[in-house]
Amino acid sequence: MIAEQLPEQPALLPGGPAGKRREWLAVLRRALRTPRGAAGLSLAGAVVLLAIIGPVVAPHSSTAFIGLPFAPPSGSAPLGTDVLGRDVLSRVLDGGWVLLVLAASATALGVVAGTACGVTAAYFGGWLDNIIMRTVDIVLAFPPLVFALLLVSVLGPKLWLIVAAVGISHAPQVARVTRAAALDVCERDFVKAAQILGIPARKVVTREVLPSLTSVLMVEIGLRLTYSILVIAGLSFLGFGLQPPAASWGLMINENRIGIVANVWGVLIPAVLIALLTIGVNTFTDAVARSSLGVGRRYSDPTQQLGLAVAGAGQ
Amino acid sequence: MAHVIAKPAPAGKSRAPAPERRAHPLRNVLLKRTAIGVLTLWFVSILVFAATQVLPGNAAYAVLQNTATPQRLRALETQLHLNRPAVAQYWAWVSGLLHGNLGTSLASGASVSSLIGGRIVNSAVLVIAAGLIGTLLGVGLGVLAAARRDSWLDHVLSVGALAITALPEFVVAVVLVIFFAALVWHLLPAVSVFTPGQPPWSSPSELVLPVATLVIVIVPYVFRMMRASMIDALESDYVEMARLKGLPRWRVLLVHALPNGIAPTVQVIGLSFIYLAGGVVVVEYVFNYPGLGAELVSAVSDRDIPVIQFIVLILAAFYVAVNILSDVVSLAASPRRRLPRS
After folding, report:
1. Fewer beta carbons within 10 angstroms: which end of chain B, N or C?
2. Model ipTM?
3. What is the distance between the alpha carbons of residues A21 and A211, in angstroms, rounded to a whole number?
4. Interface residue A152 vs chain B (CB under 8 A)
5. Which residue has better confidence, B89 or A106?
6. Is the CB of residue A232 less than 8 Å from the CB of residue A99?
């Protein structure tokens, strides 16, 4: 409904037929050379690194009771203890990787499903296009968090269900963006030529259309990753993610909220880590959009040309 | 309706064929969008129903879990119409909704309408207050940044917006609580204590932090779009013309550029309101604010299916309504696009 009213999508892709391998590497390199790209990637990278090596270097078990609840920082517990007297530092170090795995899986699911729908709709058009895009409109009517809550209410807080729910609720936005970009590509001569040569549709799509969407897809992956982290951390905060006594940043914020006056670190550190992670991913994505989609010269805001504002606010 | 409008005005002035023609596309769009909206909502209701009642075998078992005895299961199955075929179940549910019979909460035994009624008002107050303040702030800052493009102010605002866009509501909320309610200053209450029946404006201090959280979350979207479209408008020929005519700077900005800059932003403002409908879930939960979102979270914990179904439907209906409204407003705001396409 909304996409129809947005300004027409301009030609996004400078390149011709996609013979180039490793275009995505070139895209990354270009983004990294900008200050925003470098800053974004280092922020996100630092948090990811912390989450990966955290469980190995944690001084205590994340579920062991080592002192009184909400004890202030001390020698054995540099960040104090949490609501049940467990080490905040260890729980912080242990509580990130599940979020990352879930967010990455949900992003992969959403981008793959969304791209499949969007490119199919654009390439074949007609009734197939209509059916796919109307379905997209219906799924869009659910806020992702609410969609996940709806499924959790019946099937219980299972991790695969959260990945599925978040992935499915992100697919429509991906479908819209890839459809718009693919429509543009399908009009190009090299696609027309491949069609005239009688190359089967499946091969035209995978060899000619998809490679031309590299930059668009990379921006989409970045955006979806940001929102997957937001929604999954949010679900975890509401108590529908990883179940206690396991540690996860969202859950920690909720558990330790009542004790912020006594020991603020149990809330502040997980909150800051989630914030740095999402800010980092989003900033890097912004750099990719600016350096590879040619946005930012005239409009100086990638959302204008890509309709990403839609993708963003729709989450 | 088409019939009435097609007729010429019954008496008096007869010089209005032209404006009538211009009104047509807008009305058609409104009708078409409303029809699509109703259709969307219908499919949404099927989806909600399928997800909660049909999909995983037995919803009654999901509700009762380990308290399930054969008798209780059977009683609940009758209450939820689970012993009938799926289509009949769906029909019973929808016809109930259409007749204003929303069912009974499984957790509290109260009717869903009595449970939800006051909360809808509370959530609406939150969404409207945050939406209005966020829109004004976003538009104002966007115009400011576009007018001072590439100044330090513009850079600070743009980078700030980029960072804040990515923040989850609960992180914003928790940081606000730390600063304004718990640790640094003790200015505002950290949680709401009023009941669903009380009007929320009776205790304004409890509204401040929830509204502020939502405002902070949506301002970046409106700001970024407004800035981009204002820059676009400021670079157009007619603004250049106005500038060359020697009009004062503020007049060029506010009278000539702003109206065209705001049209594309209307869509994003609409999307911000939609976003708020999802955002209230977390924010109401954090601040213990008695609205739909907090109720949804507790209903999900209790597996209170009639309540969940109805709240999700309300949120979807809100999405559909805001979409129609923002389509129509943005069409009305940009005269160029109002003309029929040839």
Report:
1. C
2. 0.78
3. 9
4. yes
5. A106
6. yes
